[in-house]
Write a structure and sequence with these properties.
14% strand; 2 domains; 16 helices; binds iron/sulfur cluster; alpha/beta; globular; two-stranded antiparallel sheet
């Protein structure tokens, strides 16, 4: 494992980090084994979120007494000062630590999010105060909207940007990444396995190795999977013609049906939470049926309000068949409810 400086934070982190969504579906004991294996193999950056069910608690338990060996990042969805303050306190307790290396505003996808976070009484005020008190070392954000991410980078309020980046979603290379380098932000890549849609680690990571300054956050749910990916990183990893062919196949198979979480389809006039409901198939794949049904209950129940007016589909830049997909996902959710 090699180590890199995370932008202007001054933090040294492993060249790949651990993205902690997949440990949601593991027991505490299994999660501890996977997390400790990653640390033993040299991974030092662990990224979770308040939203990820019990993932913070699992990390807190796994690394009790090892705090100084890891770089810890989490996130809040709260946009107001009080909410962010409460989230932070709870995250610190769950993670069994008194400081976070990186605190990120989660899924800042719309202009209204930016206004709420940075405006008077916004979440940024709570984060800045916590930073001054030494409870947060650095601030960052995550987004699925290229436009919002570029805007946030330009504010120079943040030290890191976390954005989807993989061989299917490579839009960030044109403007976002160069801008982040210029302003010395650390760049974290979410969804290196294309949000769980690509199983082939060799293909996914051979592509990412072409961008050594980008730190992918790999989601692992087994010791074997940790070893597989870390082993790949310990040898020269070049994209072969076979890899290129596999990428082209994946792009053809997934390209048109892959929800990019950009949220241009929202809001729905009938109150359907379109984006999380569009992602239900991936969530179920990653969390397992029972946990996914509980996790996404609010979004999936809202699908019952869909009147198939088609407004969302008209706004989707990828022309996804949204009403049809929502119907399919609702049927899947109902089946999962019984499990
Ligand atoms: S098709 Fe359904 S989800 Fe889409 S905007 Fe219309 S009611 Fe909302
Ligand atoms: S359905 Fe389309 S518009 Fe909505 S989040 Fe997904 S990709 Fe974006």
């Amino acid at each position: 494992m090699r180590y890199r400086q995370l932008g202007r934070t001054g933090l040294q982190v492993s060249e790949m980090g651990f993205g902690a969504i997949p440990i949601i579906r593991l027991s505490f004991e299994e999660a501890e084994r996977v997390l400790r294996r990653a640390l033993d193999r040299g991974v030092t950056l662990f990224d979770t979120a308040h939203l990820y069910v019990d993932s913070e608690e699992k990390i807190g338990r796994a690394f009790e007494g090892l705090r100084d060996r890891i770089v810890l990042a989490t996130k809040t969805m709260k946009r107001d000062k009080q909410g962010a303050q409460e989230d932070l306190e709870l995250s610190l307790r769950r993670l069994r630590t008194d400081y976070l290396d990186l605190y990120q505003f989660h899924m800042v996808n719309q202009e209204a999010d930016i206004q709420a976070i940075t405006g008077p009484g916004g979440a940024l005020e709570a984060a800045v105060r916590a930073k001054e008190a030494g409870r947060i070392r650095h601030l960052g954000f995550t987004s699925h909207s290229l436009e919002m991410a570029i805007k946030l980078v330009k504010t120079e309020l943040f030290s890191t940007v976390q954005f989807p980046f993989n061989f299917i979603e490579a839009e960030a290379t044109a403007e976002l990444h160069p801008l982040a380098w210029e302003l010395k932000l650390g760049v974290l890549a979410m969804k290196p396995f294309c949000g769980g849609l690509v199983e082939d680690a060799r293909v996914a990571f051979a592509y990412l190795r072409r961008f050594p300054a980008v730190i992918p956050l790999a989601g692992w749910d087994s010791v074997e999977r940790v070893d597989e990916v870390v082993d790949l990183y310990e040898q020269p990893l070049e994209v072969t013609p076979e890899d290129e062919a596999a990428m082209a196949r994946y792009r053809t198979e997934l390209g048109d049906l892959f929800c990019r979480r950009c949220e241009y389809c929202q809001p729905c006039p009938h109150g359907v939470m379109v984006t999380p409901a569009m992602l239900y198939g991936i969530v179920a794949h990653r969390m397992g049926p029972a946990k996914a049904a509980a996790f996404a209950a609010k979004a999936m129940e809202s699908v019952r309000l869909c009147e198939e007016c088609g407004e969302c589909a008209e706004r989707c830049p990828y022309h996804l068949p949204i009403p049809e997909t929502l119907k399919k996902h609702l049927a899947m959710y109902e089946e999962h409810l019984g499990k």
